[in-house]
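Write out this protein's structure.
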Amino acid sequence: MRQEVCFCHLFKGVYAEIICTLPLKMSAAAPPTIYRLPRELLLEIFLEIYGPTIGARLDWKVKQKVTLDLSQVCRLWRDLIHGSSEFWAFIRLNVQRPNEDVRAADWIEHTAGRLLCIRVDCQGLFDSFSAKEGEGLFSKVASVLRQCMDRWVWFSIAVHPSFTRILFHHCAGEVPMLKALLIQHLAPPVGIHTDSESPLAMVPSGSPFYTIFSEPNHLPTFAPSFGSAITHLSVTASPPQEADSLLHALRLCPNLIELNLSRQNMRAPQVAAPVSLPHLTQLYAEAAQDLLPFLELPSLQLLSLPKLAWSNSVVDSLIKIIHHCPGLAHIGLDRGWGCPDWMLAGTTHSPHAMPHQISDRWRVANRLQDIGPKMVHIKLEYRPPMGLTHSAPLFRQLVDVLQENVRHCEWLSISALPELMDTFFQYFTTTSSLTQSVRLPYLVHLHLHSTVHYTLPFLELPSLVSLHIPLLTWTPAMLDSLLSLFRNAPLLSNIMLADSYIMGDAHFVSALPSVDEPLIALPSVTEFSSRGDLFFSQHQYSVSTLFLDRMALPQAKSLYLCTFPLDTTLRLVSTSISQLQHLSLSNIGWIIHRSTTPLLLPALVSLKAADQANVEILLTYFRCPDLQRLVLYVCDIKTANSTVAPTPLYDVLVSMAPPLARLDLQQVHIMDNDLIETLRGLPALKALRLALCSAADATLHALAAPSEEGHWITPCLEQIELWKNPNITPDAVLVLLESRNKESKSPNSAPGAGLPSVEGFVQFANPITTIHKRAVRSPGGFGTGFPSAKLRAALHTYGRFTWDLEGAGNSEVFATFGSAGLKFSAI
């Protein structure tokens, strides 16, 4: 049995390869291994590929695709799929289809009493039916679903608001297994009005219980039994909401633990009494200034309030919450914290906006036991409206109540007007102005959206690990201030400076530091990122250049440098030679103030060059014997017969001598001959990515056939990603896949036999012509810019070629939801 389990894991994620390697004609003497497997083991493999039938994060598109692909391989597989109730547990219904109630009943019968995940769509219903007819069709479906309420685990519905009344009428009563209810309101057609609805009277008995309302005109009425069961509530709405109705709904949810209110446009309450939510620990609420005065949250631990409209009453409400919530550890008053991670339970939310889990954003060190229940995270964005007077006093009021918490804070992010930054830190001194040190002994992560030079020298941060200042004005005073801060932060390991944009004019000096001047070594820094000032003259040196010239980073493992002179860049890199693993360079200038020599970087595994003229010359300055990945972004690759005759990219890579496994080219102008020659010199290459490049079909044809001597270009290639390359056609992709993914009993009897099969991602830049629609294998829809369903089926036939159904950039999302395709390396 142990071998069978391992075999299942081997097949998980690669079922397409199984599909594609089935021969069209089987040999009676030696049937393929896949046909000799027992039915029980085949079914176990299928279930591993399919993934969990019940879970918090489900994507019906992936489930549907996996089931369809497996069942279309052969009759045996189809019978196995259709005869197994596990594959019927996810039910998707479309009310506008004829006899959908009959289909629903038949589908439920196949589930054999299993727990159910149900999605009901009514989109487009009123395009074909009148309001009365549509409600009749929906009532039939609701009546069928009523019969299996005891098996609901996850229920999602997208309907016109009036249909929720029908649902609540038919489906009232106990739903003992229900864990999540998602209701998305569709825009009502003209002339259709929402009647008064029945209360939502389902009675869940499990905990936690998630309820998500998307785009409601108003919240439905909760029966007390339903409201008491809700532990996690989310309301995402564009229409203006009545604060009174929301507060009334919250009163019926006394057991709430987490509350998310997104895209709210609240109308101020008319008559409202306080709402007590004694168990609420996390609150996310956009533009919640009208709700704050009425909420009593004694157990609150996390507060995120983006898009606040600042006023005296808002500050008063915040002060009240801070004083009355002794367990409050995380406070965010900004624009960017999004929604909680459990919102991923809903398939009504676009995966493009998928948030990271909170634990990925907040890295909290273990707190000392004697600190007590103080805030460990404070994120404050204070940007009052232009017309608001006395903004500084409001800011001071808020800082006044936060000051004791800031002293013990571990994660601090401040975004305010530069003149208020001095005000913020002034509270932690004993003088009337910021003239002596501010010691924050527990601070680990500091984010100052912008700062002025006179703030930094007064900060003593003995525990600081991470510093991020996106907006920075490079001045001599700022240079001294940064270096002073670094001296006072011995544990600093991660530095990001000026990565957003540069504020103010560039400052220049007339001479570089003396070579005898000692460098300032930062022995704990492992990650460093900085953008410098623009440079204009061979005889001028920007302050940002001086800054880099003063530093040494002997333990740096990752460097990102943008807009610095080449010699300054190489000097800093030279201080990190022994440890450096990742190097990213952008817009490095050719102004050179001192002699330079190539650097040997023995530990470097990835190198990126972006926005770079003469990128081949830049690469000649590095010797990278262990380089695994090279990324070129927005670069022009000169040809070998150019009039200026630069060193071709092929020669550069040969001189670097890397065992390169991955090559990424995005928005790179390179001729086919040069790219082919470059690939010829990379025999260990396993992954190739071309995005918005000028390369054409000739490159793919070269990869699809051996040379006259029988040698293959990139014989180890396993993965290829092609994204909107205007000169690459589907025909060339088909040729490559057909060649690289063929199998033969005799290793040398067919082109490509014996080579690893190729998986990948493709999106075409140009419309697909009718000529490409002839190879029909399987149906399916695709978005704009993708090949037709017929061509896609032909492409899908070859190898493990995983498709991105939602568009470029979603292959990670696909893998997150358990798609059958392999998870590609992040780009």
